[in-house]
TrEMBL record:
Protein keywords: ATP-binding, Cell membrane, Membrane, Nucleotide-binding, Transport
Naturally occurring in which organism (per UniProt): Compostibacillus humi
InterPro entries, alphabetized: AAA+_ATPase, ABC_Ni/Peptide_Import, ABC_transporter-like_ATP-bd, ABC_transporter-like_CS, Oligopep_ABC_C, P-loop_NTPase
Cellular compartments annotated: Cell membrane
Family: Belongs to the ABC transporter superfamily.
Protein name as catalogued: Oligopeptide transport ATP-binding protein AppD
Domain of life: Bacteria
Start and end residues of each ABC transporter domain: 5-256
Entry membrane topology: Peripheral membrane protein
């Protein structure tokens, strides 16, 4: 079986007060195969980060997983104790965030932090952990890795810190790497280097990646498959070729249009007007209806199901319901 991660009917809600429930993740299902790079795309507020935090078992209060299942190698994660989940994190699943400064401890040198991560998950002697840490720093491109071991986080640039985070993430050879906007805070040339590095490291360690981003340029360069998220739900799923060459959902089409072309990377060309509806007030109908130029009467009344066309594409839109296929 080559399925590594299987998420089924996941609902992660935030209880914000009396009668105010934010349905950040609202019945999301998808799978990731071993070694695959899957991109989860959408604007901020669409539920991407809540999805990744759910997989990591790190949903902050007042949020919680209300229902659904998250299986890694067939093992249910949502029922693990905090201690068991701690072992899964770092050993089986590792995460890289947008701003590495918040995940690095400012008080300790880089070397100690990598070694600590190694010691927590592997049976190593201190000296072995240190040697392995140096090796990892070399792998993420630090030529003078011994010197880097002694540096403190504030002494490094944003790009260097992100390299360190990748070294820490890969320290235990995780099967799944979750990268949430890993390059958003970096400037464009450094972004490209970090992405290249992530892909090299992924090859070397044979990990799968769940890449969370709003940047379709990044997706085009790295992903095998794409999940488009909107209003807490997946609205379209396809291979990277399908999504870029033949997008079906009006939201996906809008996202692609607002992507700056390579020659004209100056400004957004045709951004989608409006914004994602707040997740405590989804409309009864299609959650994109307010912003959709194809909206029909039925779109105001009924939220479409994620519809599988006979070409194997999945799309949540009433426009495609007359095509032959199955409803999920
Ligand atoms: Fe637009 Fe209707 Fe499709 Fe929603 S269901 S994306 S409103 S056409
Ligand atoms: Mg986010």
């Amino acid at each position: 079986d080559d399925i590594l991660l299987e998420v089924e009917h996941l609902k992660t809600y935030f209880y914000l007060g009396k009668d105010k429930v934010a349905k950040a993740v609202d019945d999301v299902s998808f799978a990731i195969k071993r070694g695959e790079t899957v991109a989860l795309v959408g604007e901020s507020g669409s539920g991407k980060s809540a999805t990744s935090l759910s997989i990591m078992g790190l949903v902050p209060s007042p949020g919680k997983i209300v229902s659904g299942s998250i299986k890694l190698n067939g093992k249910e994660l949502t029922r693990l104790s905090e201690k068991e989940m701690n072992n899964v994190r770092g050993r089986d699943i590792a995460m890289i965030f947008q701003e590495p400064m918040t995940s690095l401890d400012p008080l300790f040198p880089i070397g100690d932090q990598i070694a600590e991560s190694l010691l927590r998950h592997k049976k190593l002697k201190k000296k072995e952990a240190k040697e392995l840490a140096i090796e990892l720093l070399k792998k993420v491109g630090f030529v003078r890795a011994e010197k880097m071991m002694k540096e403190y986080p504030h002494q490094l640039s944003g790009g260097m810190r992100q390299r360190v985070m990748i070294a820490i993430a890969m320290a235990c050879n995780p099967q799944l790497l979750i990268a949430d906007e890993p390059t958003t805070a970096l400037d464009v040339t450094i972004q490209a280097q970090i992405l290249d590095l992530m892909m090299d490291v992924k090859e070397e360690f044979d990990s799968a990646i769940l890449l969370i981003t709003h940047d379709l340029g990044v997706v085009a360069e790295t992903a095998d498959r794409v999940l488009v998220m909107y209003g807490g739900q997946i609205v379209e799923e396809g291979t990277v070729e399908e999504i870029f060459q033949q997008p079906k959902h009006p939201y996906t089409k809008g996202l692609l249009k607002s992507m700056p072309s390579l020659e004209m990377e100056v400004e957004r060309l045709d951004a989608i007007p409006g914004s994602v509806p707040p997740s405590h007030q989804f409309p009864v109908g299609c959650r994109f209806a307010d912003r959709c130029k194809f909206a029909m009467e039925i779109c105001q009344k009924e939220n479409p199901a994620l519809f599988q066309t006979n070409g194997g594409r999945k799309v949540r839109c009433h426009l495609y319901e007359s095509e032959e296929g199955e409803h999920e």
